[in-house]
Amino acid sequence: MKYLFTLTLCLLSISILAQTKVTLHTDKAETQINRNIYGHFAEHLGRCIYDGIFVGENSDIPNTNGVRNDIIEALKNLNIPNLRWPGGCFADTYHWKEAIGPKDQRKAIENLSWGNYREDNSFGTHEFLDMCELLEAEPYLAVNMNSGTVQEAVDWVQYTNHQNGTSYLTDMREENGRSTPWNVKYWGIGNESWDCGGHMTVDYYINLYKRYATAMTSYFNTEGLFRIAVGPGFPDYNWTEKLMQEIPARRFEGISLHHYAVNWDHRSSSYDFNDEEYFDILSRAWFMEEFITKNSEVMDKYDSAKRVALIVDEWGGWYDPDTSGNGALYQQNTIRDAMIAGITLNIFNNHADRVRMANLAQTVNVLQAIALTKGESMILTPTYHVMEMYKVHQDATLVPSEVETREFKLGDKQIQAISVSASIDKSEKMHISITNIDNKNGQELEINLNTFKAKKVSGRILSSAKVQDYNSFDNPTKVSPEEFKDAKLNGSSLVVSLPPHSVVVLELVK
Ligand code: AHR
Prior knowledge:
The protein is α/β, with parallel strands linked by helices. The chain has 2 domains: 2-28 and 400-509, Golgi alpha-mannosidase II (Immunoglobulin-like, Sandwich), CATH 2.60.40; 35-105 and 126-320 and 333-395, TIM Barrel (Alpha-Beta Barrel), CATH 3.20.20.80. It is built from 10 helices and 27 strands. It has helices at residues 2-17, 69-77, 125-135, 150-161, 168-175, 202-215, 237-246, 275-302, 335-350, 382-390; strands at 20-24, 39-41, 63-64, 67-68, 82-85, 109-110, 118-119, 138-143, 186-189, 226-229, 254-261, 309-317, 355-361, 371-374, 377-380, 397-399, 401-404, 407-410, 413-416, 418-424, 430-436, 443-448, 456-462, 482-483, 487-490, 493-498, 502-509. It has an 8-stranded parallel β-barrel with strand order 2-5-8-9-10-11-12-13, surrounded by 4 helices. It has a 6-stranded antiparallel sheet with strand order 16-20-21-27-23-24, covered by helices on one side. Strands 17-1-22-26-25 form a 5-stranded mixed sheet, with no helix packed on it. The structure holds alpha-L-arabinofuranose.
C-alpha cells in the first residue's frame, strides 16, 4: 500500500514536470533580435502627445523643453529604441510645415481623426526630433499620403536630413534654431491606406507609393532612407503579395503590419472583464503568430534573403474606451495587457529573421499605454514592466525554441498556454522570457538548455492575484516585478514552476 502511494506520488510529479517541455536550440543561435522590436508609437490622439508627453516649456510639471521629465526617465529606462510619430490616422491629414517656427505664429489645427478638437501645433517636427535625441531613440516619421502631397514629403526629408545650405528648406531649419540635420532614417509612406489613409485599393496605393518613394530622396537613395510601405491590417495576404511583386527592390526596405487584440463586435471593459472576454482577447493576441508567419511566407517567395523587413508598427490591446474625461482611447492596463505584451514580444523575438521593428500603441494615456498621467502624477502600467523585463533581449542573439505545452481551455476552445523566447547577449548570459496566460492553472516547465552550461539562475516575475488587477494613482505599485525563486537548475535542464497569469524573465550565467 505504502509502495503504491509512493509510486502514485512519483508518477504524479513526473506528469506535473511534463506539463510543458521546452527545448532550446543553442546550437542554432544566429539571428540578432533587432532592438527596434521594442519600439513605441505616439500619435496626436487624446492625451498621448499633449498632456501625456508634452506639457510645454512653461508648465509647472517638471519638464525638459516641454517634455515631461517623468516620461523621459521612464522611456530611457526601457532603452526605447525608436518612436513612431505623428500617427496613425492623424498623420493622414497632418501638414508638418504648419508646426515649425515661432510657436505664437504656428497655425492652430483641428484634429480631424480623433474628435475634431483644436491643437495649437506647439509640438511639431523640432520638438519631436529633439525629444528623440534626448531619449537616444531613432525617430520614425509617418508621411501624409492622403491629404498631403509628394512635394510635402520630399520637403520634409530635405528639412530634416539635408546638409546646411542645400536649399531654402535647410536655411529655414537654421532660422528655426537647428543647424545640423537630424538624419531621420525611418519613413513610413502612408498609414492604413486601405482605411483612414484614403480607402485605397492595393494597385492605387502601389502606384502612389512609387511616386513618393522615388522622389523622397536622391534617385539612388544615397541618403539611406529606410522606406516602409503600408502592409495589411487584416488577413489580406494578397496585399502583401502585390507589394512584393510590384515595388522595385530599390524602392522599399520594409512593409508594415497592424494588428490589435480587439473584438470590434464587443469591446470589453479594460479592467472589468470576465473569463470569456479574457480568453477572447488572448486568442486575438495569439493571432499575431499566424499573421506574421503567413505574411513572411508570402515575402519569402520573392525575397528569400529576407532583405525586406516586417515592421509591426501598431500592436496592442484595444478595449471599450473610458469616457470619464481622460481623453480619446484612454483605457486601464491590467495583467491581461501584461499577458498580451508577454506573448507578443516573444512572437516578435522568435520571428527576428523577418520582424525587425515594432511599435506598441500607444506610449502614454492611449490604448495599451506604458504610462498613465494625471496632472503632475504618472504611473507605470503592467505593460511597462513587461517591456522593461524583456529589454534584455534587445540586440541579443535569438536561441530558437520548441515548446510542447498544455492548452489553455475555455469550454471547447483552446489556445497555447505557454509562450517562450530566449536569447544570449554579448556577455554570454542567456535570458528566457516565459508567459503563462492560463488564469486558472499554474504550469511546470522543464527546459532543456542543450549546450548552454549554466551555473546560476535568477529571475523576476510579474503577476498579481487577479487578471483584472492594475496600477492606479492610489496604488501605483500594486502590479510590480518581484524576485522569482521557482527556477532550479538540474544538470542540463531547468525546472520552472509558474503561477497562473504570470510573466517571468530568467537570467542564466555560465
Ligand atoms: O492607434 C490608433 C489608430 O489605430 C491609429 O491611428 C490607426 O492607424 C489605427 O487604426
